[in-house]
Amino acid sequence: MISIIALGLLVIALVITVNAIVTGVFAARNGSALTLESSRRAALAVFPLLTGVLVCLLILLFTGRFEYAYVYQTTEVDMPFYLKVAALWGGQEGSLLFWCWLLSGFSFIALVRQWKRDRDLMPWVIVVTMFTLLFFLVLVLFFENPFNRYYITMDGQVMSALFSTGFTLLADPSNGMGLNPLLRHFGMVIHPPTLYLGFTGFVIPFAYAIASLIKGRTDDHWIRATRKWSLAAWLFLSAGLVLGSRWAYDVLGWGGYWGWDAVEISALMPWLTGTAYLHSMMMQEKRGLFKHWNIALIILTFCLVILGTFLTRSGLLSSVHAFSESAIGPAFFVFITIVFIASLVLLIWRWSSLGSAYPVKSFFSREGLFLFNNLLFVAIFLICLTGVLFPIFSELFTGQQVTVGPPFYRRSTGPLFGLLFLLMGIVPLSAWGTSTAKRLNSEIWKPAVVSLTFPLAAILLGVRQWGGALGIWLVGLVICVTLFDYARSVGVSARNNHEPWWKAFNRLTSRNRRRYGGYIIHLGIVLMGLGIIGIEFFQSETQATLAPEQSIDFAGYNLTYKGLSVQDNVEGREAARAYIDVSKGSRNLGTITPRHDFYYTAEQTVTLPGLRSTLKDDLYIILVDWMPISSDGATFKIFHNPLIKWLWIGSIVLMLGTLVAMWPDPERKTAALEVKAGV
Amino acid sequence: MNANPAQSSTNSSKKKPFKVNKFLIGGIVLFAAVVLLVITSVKGNAQYYLTVAELMTGKAGSQGNARVSGVVLGDTIMYDQQTLELSFTVANIPGDNKEIEALGGLAQVLHDAAFDPNAERMQVIYRGVKPDLLKNEAQAIMTGKLGADGVFYADELLLKCPSRYEDSVPEQAQP
Predict the structure, then answer these.
(1) CATH topology for B47-164?
(2) Number of neighbours of residue B83 by Cβ within 10 angstroms
(3) Alpha carbon of A441 to those of A177, A449, A479: distances in Å?
(4) Which residue numbers in chain B have pLDDT < 50?
(5) C-alpha closest to that of A531 among A642, A618, A425, A613
(6) Does B127 touch chain A (CB under 8 A)?
(7) How close B49 comes to chain A (CA, Å)?
(8) Which residues of chain A have pLDDT under 50?
(9) Burial class of residue A602 in the structure, from the number of CB atoms within 10 Å of its CB (0-12 exposed, 13-18 middle, 19+ buried)
């Protein structure tokens, strides 16, 4: 019954989406208000319809209807409630439906909020978002339907199908297979939806860009109207990436946070081009520059979002993240090709009318440095793309699949990330227009000299790797320049207005949220950089087999193995815990408990590292194995990860900064109210 | 790059083409640097994707690192927790996705290969933490080198358990 309702709603949603597209195109061509209204209503109606479908699937998941293939594959009877919700995106079919739902929700919000202001663009915005939605709906309905059921045929075969095809019986399994134990982690529960929010969020700026191209509007309106969408999408994408790393760090137990896995990279690529876009859109808003570039970047970002979704699902790449191989690969390929070529043709068609306000004059002007920043982001993206596609192209050209691993990415992107950090330090002090290195130098030398204390301190503390010291200097430079510039502005403002510095600080920040939000984001990024430098350059590891009460000295700590407890049948698993006391000198620093769980139904072990995390360093201990019978010892792998905590702290700072930048400006708000009152 | 301020400010108003070239040259230099970076990084780090059969028959020659995919035979897994030396045997599976699909999907191929006495087999030695997903009929993707003794010494070990993700149908399905 429920699945009939759900399927009915899905079909109606599909028909209405097609209707919205067709009427949208007509409304755009003949300008009839009535047709446009019909298109708008159709586009709005899709969201409640898909919400209904989603609720149906949730009901099936909660009530344990295991005759449904999707429910069987992602849940089991005694799974906690929040994991049953997470099962919604735990598999291929559900996550595609979830994608559709988010997409329809975003277009719903955009239509409600921006309808009056952007009426001329709206028909095409509807067409672009609904076309994207149509593609995903077709996938859900015809290729990866979450409402397939299991049937048993006359010869005893079990098959999954949408409807009974005569002479078959509905299967009725009493329990499902449950979510993969590795995914039963809070970070993993919210990582996919966060990432999807970031992915789908870029649809709106893309739709606006395409709408402006078609309408021939060459002003900056599409950028201004979708600035918050871009920022929000970027925020969610960043948060999704960080949550994924945190999950890897907490659960996968290889002592790292990022493995340069093909799927990780395919989520990083839209982040790179999206970040470039966030920077260059400021150039267009403030100075009318980089117009082609902005449209190209948003097209690229959107295509990479689709490519990322495609790479995860096509089975083209081998990766821990991949869903199963499926038939939807070619469909994705066709869709990306259509979107990319159509957008490119539009851009070329409008190329000549999208001129810059003035040419960029010198390398060391702010415009020139922003251009350089954009090129660096695109260069890093191209390196990532090369690496991801390397196996495919090498097979095409040489018949031999050749892959490149993490060392390739580290080596080739490392220097470019370093240059980006350097730019982050320089650009806030650069001047618009015609500028020179000399002029920039005169601004920058003071904070630059102060920042030298960072690497000096590091060297005094025993750092002997020039790469690490250089990285620490770059981090120091950005921090010094940012604080220097902030403090100078606050000082000037406090003196001019005769007010205490904290008042000036508040006023300045709220007046200029975008600038200072950006500064806070930069601080977040360099703090994250500090964590990455810590683990990339200074990580050390050891392994040891310890008898009870035996201890080992490692990285300045004294670790004593106190014992092991193995408990049977704790929530469907055998749970082993080792207890290790940590001390430094005579100070006792507490106990670390690495875990080793064995899930009975899944027949799988999950090794959870024990962690002692401080601002200075992390002790990260993995319980590798133990001898259950003689109980005379256990083997551990121990990592010392300096500074890694700053990666997580930095990411929180980054999110706060983005929120500051997104917060509505008080002046703008009043201006908008006046306009409303005037109308 | 632009050390003389006086010259640059006069140039900017008069000689426009020169300015365009300056950025073009800058762009080309950056592009060349990136290409160079990619090429030098690929050289040391390329891994040839091979099947067990291709590797064992020496089709690959002794060129650099190889990336091999095979099915794990559960009975052969041995782990020395003192030295963290992990040893197991993998059996050959086809490398081509289309071929795997034609044979009934990855889970089926892995299952069949594990029971096929004629499939080429290879011993693998890996030093490190035993991965959680290492078990019978899992797909192992290993990066490393084939030693002269016919044993594959892996530096990196990635495991996939298709049964958890693929269409596996309920076993005790009752009408």
Answers:
(1) OB fold (Dihydrolipoamide Acetyltransferase, E2P) (2.40.50)
(2) 11
(3) 64, 11, 17
(4) 1-19, 163-175
(5) A642
(6) no
(7) 5
(8) 318-324, 669-679
(9) buried
